[in-house]
Each structure stands twice: as structure tokens, then as C-alpha cells.
Amino acid sequence: MEIIQYIQTIARVSPEAVQRISSSFVRKELQKKSLLFEEGQPVSSLYFIEKGLIRMYYINRQGKDITFGFYTEQHFVTIPESFFGQIPSRYYLELLENSVVYALGHSELMTLIRDFPEIMEIENYVLRYFLLKASERTIALQFQTAEERYQTLAASQPSILQRAPLGAIASYLGITQETLSRIRARKLS
Questions:
Q1: How far is 118 from 112, CA to CA, in rounded Å?
Q2: Of all helices (H) and strands (E), which one includes residue 61?
Q3: How does pLDDT run across 35-50, given as a tens digit for each residue?
Q4: CA separation for the pair 151, 106 (Å, rounded)
Q5: In this structure, are 35 and 97 located in the same domain?
Q6: Residues 114 and 21 in one domain
Q7: Do 150 and 162 reside in the same domain of the chain?
Q8: What is the pLDDT of residue 56?
């Protein structure tokens, strides 16, 4: 189980905790275009992506969907404020490819932490990861040009440029598809 190797790289957990973690995650094979959850519902699970690509997005006041982030293999994905706070989510998680994920319910995580306090390292890692991603996104939108944001995405998550739809990439970068096409054309010439 790849998730166990990943967890062992981010947290020091006992063999007993590893066994419980292994039996607590539920493997799910999901189809492209499926939603892991929708806006308005509390997020009930933390997901680990074994295979696939997931897009986090929201619908703005004008009814347009805005991509907030992309998540690929060997990463956790959830909506932290909703999952950890058990409040309704403002976001959707959409599968952009057929995917294999492992799901861990909120109550299962809390039980694991109660029984094995060292598992809190995993929770802290997930919170730090999402805080860093949100901070990087805010800084990029405020201080980088469209071309710099594209270069940052190409450097940090190059597979997204081949795997995600252009509209989702443009939305993530805060630009139109036409602007994205111009940036890509300049990169090729």
C-alpha cells in the first residue's frame, strides 16, 4: 500500500499505528468527472491519491467555476477548513482522470489520533501542506504576472500542463484561455 510508505516519510509512527492506519483507509476506484464532494456539505474524508488528477474549484457569484488547485499522485487532498472544522465546504473536488484514492473518515482520524497520538504528525503535515499551497497561490495572484504564474506552474507541477483541461489551467492562473494560448505559443517559439 503506497500510502503507508508515504506516511512513513512524513511521520514517525509505531508499527501498531501503521497497522491501524492501513486498515482504516478505504480504497476507491473512481471515474473521470466524478465529484468527491460538493459545495455546501461538510467534507467527511481525507483522501490520498494513488493514481489520478483531482481539481479543487468553486463557483463564483457570476456562476463561473474557478480552479483553486490541482492534486496529483502521492498527495493528500481534502478541504482542510471543512474536514478539520466539520463545516460546509465552499469547494468541489472533481476527478479529471480515472483515479484510485484512499479515503479516511474524519471520525476514524480522530479515533486514530486518540489511540496513537503520534498520528497527529500526519494531521499537522496535511494542515501545513494546505496552508503553504494557499499562501503560494495568494502570493502568485498578487505579485506575479500571468506569464510568471504559468512558469511557476510549469516548474512546480509540469504534468498538469499535459493532463488538465486548458480551461481549468487558465482559471487556476487567473487568465482567459486566449491569454493562456498566447503564453504557450510564446514558450514554443
A1: 9
A2: none
A3: 998 889 899 999 999 9
A4: 36
A5: yes
A6: yes
A7: yes
A8: 96
Cα–Cα distance, 52 to 42 (Å, whole number): 23
Task: For residue 162, give its domain range.
Answer: 144-188
Q: What is the pLDDT of residue 57?
A: 96
Cell numbers representing residue 157 in the block: 507541477
Do 133 and 56 share a structural domain?
A: yes
Residues of the chain below pLDDT 70: 1, 189
Give the closest residue to 21 by CA, choosing from 37, 35, 39, 5. 5
The identity of residue 79, as a single letter, is: I
Distance CA 33, CA 168 (A): 13
Residue with cell 478505504: 26
Which amino acid would we find at residue 126?
V
In the numeric block, which cell numbers belong to residue 132? 503553504
Q: What is the pLDDT of residue 3?
A: 86
Phi/psi-derived region of residue 40, left when phi > 0, alpha when psi is between -120 and 50, beta in every other case: left
pTM (2 d.p.): 0.91
**What is the per-residue pLDDT for 1?**
61
CATH code of the domain covering residue 120: 2.60.120.10
Whether 160 and 129 map to the same domain: the answer is no
Residues 175, 170: Cα–Cα separation, whole Å? 5
Q: What is the largest CA-CA distance in the chain?
A: 58
Is there a single domain that holds both residue 114 and residue 174? no
